[in-house]
Amino acid sequence: MRSRNLLTSLVGAVLALGIMSTPDARAQYPEKPITMIIPLGAGGSHDRNARVFTSVVPDILGQPIIVKLMPGASGQTGTAAAATAKADGYTLLFTHNYFDQLQKHVKKLPYDTDKAFVTVGSINSGEFSVIVRADSPFKKWQDLVDYAKANPGKLKFAHSGNWGATHSPALQLFTEAGIADKVVMVPYKGGGPSLRGFLAGEADFTFQFISTILAQGDKVRVLISAGTKSAFPGVPTFKDLGYSADIGKMYRVIMAPRDIPADRLAKLQEALIKLQEHKTYQRLIKAIGEKQEYINGPEYEKMRPMQSAAYEKMIEGLKKK
Amino acid sequence: MFEAFLAGFSILFNPETVFMTFLLMAAGLFLGMFVGALPGFTTLMALAILLPISFFIHPLLGIPFLLGVYKGGIYGGSIPAILVSMPGTGAAVATTFDGPALTKKGQARKALEIALFASVTGDLTSDIVTIALIGPIAAVALLMGPPELCAVLFMSLIVIAGTSSGVFVKGLLMLAVGLFLGMIGQDPIGALSRFSFGIAEIEAGIPLLPMLIGLFALPEIFVSIEKKASQIIQAKDLKVSGARLTWAEFRSCGRTIARSTGIGTLIGVIPGVGQVVAAFMGYAAAKSASKTPEKFGTGELEGVAAAEAANNAVNGPTLVPLLTLGIPGDNLTVILVGAFIAHGLRPGPQLMEQQGPLVFAILIAMVLANILFIFIGYLCIPMFAKVVTVRKSLLLPLTLIFAFAGTWVFRSNPYDLAILVIFGAFGYMARKLHFNVTPLAMGFILGPPMEYAFGQTVTLAQGAIFNYIVFERPIAAVFVAATPIITYLIWRRSVRLRQQFGTTD
Question: Which residues of chain A from 16 to 35 reach within 8 Å of chain B, CB to CB?
Fold first, then answer.
């Protein structure tokens, strides 16, 4: 098993380098490697999750999925490429809910995500929790909210870039807590730099993934934990404090061009469901500190309009101020 | 700490795995060098593609393998820069000043060898410094925030514009053009479109790689075509690939390499500045310390050594924030994070405490990778150097094909080819008018991160920017204060040189 996976990933690597291609005689879909566009940069959590499942997928589909990173223009470059690709099931998009449903409310896009894409499935979600440094005077989330209300403009929040994966959920949380116009939002170039800024004291609090927080040990304190069950003992979740439960949840979603033949879409969905039972996948996904929370296409499709409505309301609220 | 270091040694030299560790590291170095040398392929792409391999093997096999790809790739980028003036990354631009000139003199092999030895020396020294000073480096890295980054980038741009060959004012003009080109697309903070005139292709900005190949490689080809065949060195006059580097030549570059290593290591400590700036600062420092600065740019071994030692010396300290704070220092180290966490090792303060020996084992492997690379690189150089022994009438069209093919494989976008041609024509004209395109490339590369850092600084200062810099960010204040002084010194120097030699070209 081990060596076979090593082999498949090696083969995938060689293929992706374009040095060789494997001719395959089977006429059934997929008969050649599938390209999956990630509209984000190398090394991010999307890239990492994709590396895990694409190293197992050839066992199930019989063909590799080749990751193509196309960052730029806050996800627009890659998303536009996927939107204009042939809907033959050989080009997929690996994106998240903020690119998919929030971005359209803040800027004019050269595509309509609802018309352009249909969900294959959501692999899992990244969950953000609110942290302060260990020496911070704020012991509870409410302390921070009270202080922010009494001292507008005093608190700084470090995030990973405007309308990015931590900025959007943070705005959602601050809007619900009534402090959206009282906190200074400091952008950083990605999650790593925002963590540096936060640790260096440039900002008072930030959002981070659970796995990153665990690596910081006792240097930080968690005020709110994402998820339905708190990942940190004694720390309330968003839901516990009465906020929308899916705040801070970044769904990692595989989508396909909307006109993909139904049988091909079904085949991909079937493969992703089978993937969840795959032993190597289970081991690897745990190793990289992620969860298995697969949501199949049809169910995720129902969530998209609701997300859109929630984000629209939030943005309207922000504009009024 | 010292016990952990010793324990690291014994983990690394475990007789069962040590052979495989070094074998994989050697494979990584070779693969990295090869991929780095191919125009259009980047080390970043290679690392991302090879990452999954590390999921399935022991961390002490997988991580040294990836480190090998990383180190090999950074050196590999200098190969096309030296041979055909084709920089695959911003970091290799400084190598195109003297590398291709050496190649034209028939000293391609010498140039590749000095690049190798300078790279390895710079890297090795900075890795050792990193291991010795891992704690203090981490503390300093934390102090270097957006204001410091912005100040350092601004100062670097002035130094680069000022020390590139040609008239100072012309350099500044090209810098301004580069900064403007860097603004095309979306503004770094608010992601609003500017100067893109609704053209969807440049919404994401002008792509760097086609632009660099266009600016540096195409004019080189055009200029060569202009010359009559007789004026170009006949291939058969050269020995297989030119003479080898002598020990005396390496020794004569010793001071330069040491200086560049120091500069590169310091720059590596500041997160977000990186190899591009290091290479230029190393080059600029070597040029101004030299007794014969006018020789720089005409095929000076020291020029190649200065750039290569400095950009590789960045590697060591870049890993520090990752291992000690859990913050990756650049795009390449971000990928290494994946290799760590796939084995349940979460880079951060906890990692050092809980897995100190393993971290040290990896760091020691990194040091030894350099030594391994001397041999691998040395054996491969003749193979690469042979490229220039191809007849000029074949080499020029081949280089042209490589320029287009490299641009195409980068991301298979036909529009990139247009960028290549436009910047090729621009570069050629600039050359005819004695404008140096280097400040343009640097303004383009460093402008956006500088603008971002400036935007962050303004946000952090909340309007009171002067007070913020002076009272809360003394390090940034020092850089800001030093900039006009350095500018004046460079200007005075450029005037003096012109009086001495008539021209600084």
Answer: 16-18
